[in-house]
Amino acid sequence: MLEKTLEMLAYDFMRNAFAASAIVAVLAGVVGFFLVLREQTFAGHALSHVSFAGATGAVLMGIPPFAGIIVLATLVGIGMGMLGEKLRQRDVAIGVVLAFSLGLGMLFLHFYTHFATQATTLLFGNVLGIDRTTIGTLAALAFVSLAAMGFIARPLLFASLHPELAEARAVPVKFVSVSFLVLVALAVAEATQIVGMLLVFALMVAPPAAAQLLSARFWRGLLLSVILAWLDAWGGIALAYITDWPSSFWITALGTCAYLAAFIMRGNMRTHHAA
Amino acid sequence: MSNVIVCSDLTLGFGPRVVLAGVNLAVAEGEFIGVLGPNGSGKTTLMRAILGLLPPRSGSILVFGKPPPRGNPAIGYLPQLRSRLAGLSLTGRDFIAAAYGGHRFGLPLFGRAAEAAVDRALALVGAEDLAARPLAALSGGEQQRLLLAQALLGRPRLLLLDEPLISLDPPHQAAVVALVRRLQKELGFTVLFSAHELNPLLHAIDRVLYLGGGHAALGTVDEVITPAVLSRLYRTEIEVIRTHGHIFVMAGGHEVEHEAHRHAIGHSDA
To answer: Is B217 helix (H, G, I), strand (E, B) or coil?
Structure first.
């Protein structure tokens, strides 16, 4: 076991993969916790699809795909936030944006025919291909995002739990919701580097959802969410090394297992409580 | 005794709709006011104006002698619409604590001051035990008590309770009314308590504010719950039947409050 671990860590690309995925897991665990709490996971899902158009469009224009993802996802995040909390058609609007983004991504791919390998990377991620420069970018972006999360966390929690009272208490509900979706966009952009845009849910939704099943306290749940996302990412990469299967598969598998286990454990806790 | 709320020729509305027009009223400190009226008569609209969320179309509204600022800490509020409550897996304690200083930026650290404020509010409504459980696992009446505790955070001098009895059965309705009345006597704040039916409130309220047809009537139950006043508010012939300590407001052989209540389920009031 130890031997295998040492052997694994001897590779530069493995060390990079562990570092990058730890950074992203912390951000995804924090942002995802609020995303699940606010029942906005569909918006998160749509933003990950938007990043497909962002990345392919960026490549066409000759700029780095990561920059394209950040710009487009942030803009769409602002747009979604402006739609407001209570708009009945919101999910429909988000769904339409989601479909159109994938369509646009397809069109960009059509124009840039040598893109097939990169397309797979975008869709399913390639954590083993991350270099040191990317780690630096990921760390800087995560630091800024977490600082911003820390700044808005208090009004965001209030507005998430009781929007009607928050409005009456002069919480800038709109500002907080729009800012939050921008942070979701940045977290999605980071997560796509690890698991790809199709599997962002594995890191941003499964661990926080499991955490919220396991703890009814805010801080305990948030901490658990980060820990689960981190374990999920590292476990996935280690299993990928051992089995030679894709790491994205293992990360989604572990995320799903964590969610299922939490679901079952919570069921047991309930039965005990009733008895 | 000073006035907490004074409306002078107040007109309120949103979009093309005028909800209340030319309302004049004064609520004195320490009064328990029952706010009644059919759906859309402006109960929530009036509360939103008192909270400073809806500026007057014309006329004026003064709360504690001033035009109300948004986010007035002297006002405790229990909104009718509680969109997020049902599915929340967080504990009642964290739910209440989130409102403490929730308008300030930074981390929701729930420090010692917050814990003490939450403890006090929970003790007031007798919900210390409930607060440890997830909100989703509580009954409607239990959630209502926690919401009341949340409204009491920060020691408000005016409490606006918007339809706190909705979807509660009669014993729980009576318990909520008795609890609010007891706290109001102990702590001396002013209460505006809106409801669809007068009877659960009948023995708790000092005066009744009846809204309808864009107008308002404020006075004692004997002054306001009369065929003359209510016929003007409902713009139809109203009968008032008093029996066994209950009052029934009837229009054309139907009980209007009962009808209003039935229609209200699952809808928000204007």
So the answer is: strand
CA distance B152 to B163: 16
Q: Are B88 and B135 in contact (CB under 8 A)?
A: yes
d(CA A17, CA B165): 56
Write down the pLDDT at residue B259.
55
Task: Write down the CATH number for the domain with range B1-74+159-270.
Answer: 3.40.50.300
Residue B262 has pLDDT above 70, yes or no: no
Decide if B89 and A217 are in contact by the 8 Å CB cutoff.
Answer: no
- In B, minimum Cα distance to A212 occurs at B89
- Would you tell me how many other CB atoms lie within 10 Å of the CB of residue A62? 6
Of B51, B107, B133, the CB nearest to A154: B107
**In this model, does residue B233 exceed pLDDT 60?**
yes
The pLDDT, as a whole number, for residue B268 is 42
What's the CA gap between B153 and B165, in Å, rounded?
A: 20
ipTM over 0.85: yes
Phi-psi region of B30 (alpha: psi -120 to 50; beta: other; left: phi over 0): left
* Per-residue pLDDT tens over the stretch B125-172: 999 999 999 998 888 889 999 999 999 998 999 999 999 998 889 999
**Taking CB atoms and an 8 Å limit, are A158 and B87 in contact across chains?**
no
- Delimiting residues of CATH 3.40.50.300 domain(s) in chain B: 1-74+159-270
The model's pTM: 0.91
